[in-house]
Specification:
By secondary structure, the protein is an alpha+beta fold. The chain contains eight helices and 16 strands. Strands 7, 8, 10, 11, 12, 14, 15 and 16 form an eight-stranded mixed β-sheet that branches. Bound molecules: pyridoxal-5'-phosphate. The site of pyridoxal-5'-phosphate has 13 residues, from α7 and β14.
Length: 297
């Protein structure tokens, strides 16, 4: 996989942009950031990762909307959606048609520089060819249940933990994935201390109970998933009911099927939970992923 294209966004927030392009295209494998930028020193910032198919960002508006939501949760100035859109388009053009047929973009806003308050917020968009997730979509993933260490009401009791914001501080999520690997699984479902199930470290949970698809509501401190939203859109077109509600861990055993959903990997069936095998709903997985790949919103 190539290292892709980096578009540095020097003036990424509303009110900061003046005349001329507020960004510049640089090779992604060349140094581009100050070592004192708060993204690097504190993980203080936000990001989005979106899929690019046939040169177009999928669910572009939903990602920009969530980006703005995360910024507000971190008291960051509002990112300029137009600047990010243009920067990403520039990156896609520089990546070239072949790679941009199946690619991804990670775009970032960070608060500024730890040493230099005049530096202001900076951002970037990294556009690169996508990893191949065909195998995971077909074969599914085994997951383990790992505690997130707080209760279901964390967003009310401790909003400063920023649960449900897409912050750059993903070290905990990465540690959870390493713990999953130690336990022989490829992914994780986070649980609360009071017995509810939340989401994966980089994905939403969708469970099917008969004709109803269920996901955990954002109030529980999970990230509102753009792919889960797409899956729900598809579900309604084929007569399934969709529901946001708190899901108890013990309900997982009663579900007919479970998926982890995320923008680039799409809907992946869960084939085992804590070593107990689960049946995959292959037909619905294929149909949902065909819908998600074809979406042009
Ligand atoms: N939950 C978390 C914690 C995530 O990091 C992600 C995506 O990376 C998701 C859910 C799924 O969101 P989306 O479907 O918009 O990619």
């Amino acid at each position: 996989m190539s290292s892709g294209i980096l578009v540095m966004i020097d003036r990424p927030t509303i009110g900061q942009t003046g005349p001329g392009d507020p960004f510049r295209v640089v090779p992604a494998d060349e140094p581009a950031l100050r070592a004192t930028v708060l993204a690097a020193t504190r993980g203080d910032g936000i990001f989005e990762t979106a899929a690019i198919r046939d040169g177009r960002v999928q669910a572009a508006a939903a990602h920009l909307h969530r980006f703005a939501r995360s910024a507000a949760m971190l008291d960051l100035p509002a990112p300029d959606p137009d600047v990010y859109t243009r920067a990403i388009e520039r990156g896609i053009a520089a990546l070239g048609e072949t790679d941009a047929s199946d690619a991804a973009v990670k775009y970032v806003l960070t608060r500024g520089d730890e040493e230099d308050p005049s530096f202001g917020p900076v951002g970037w968009a990294h556009v690169h060819a996508s990893e191949d997730f065909t195998g995971a979509r077909r074969d599914g993933v085994k997951v383990v249940l790992l505690s997130r260490g707080y209760a279901l009401d964390v967003t009310q009791t401790a909003p400063w933990l920023l649960q449900g914001a897409k912050t750059l501080s993903y070290a905990v999520n990465r540690a959870a994935l390493r713990e999953a690997a130690r336990r022989g699984a490829a992914d994780v479902l986070f649980t609360t201390t009071d017995g509810f199930v939340l989401e994966g470290p980089t994905s939403s949970l969708v469970a099917r109970f008969g004709d109803t698809l269920v996901t955990t509501p954002p109030e529980a401190g999970v990230l509102p998933g753009t792919t889960q939203q797409g899956m729900f859109e598809y579900a309604t077109t084929i007569g399934l009911v969709t529901e946001f509600r708190d899901l108890r861990v013990d309900e997982l055993a009663e579900a007919d099927a479970l998926w982890l959903t995320s923008s680039v990997r799409l809907a992946v069936p869960v084939t085992a939970v804590d070593g107990v095998s689960r049946a995959a709903d292959t037909a619905l997985t294929s149909a949902v992923n065909a819908f998600l790949v074809a979406r042009d919103d």
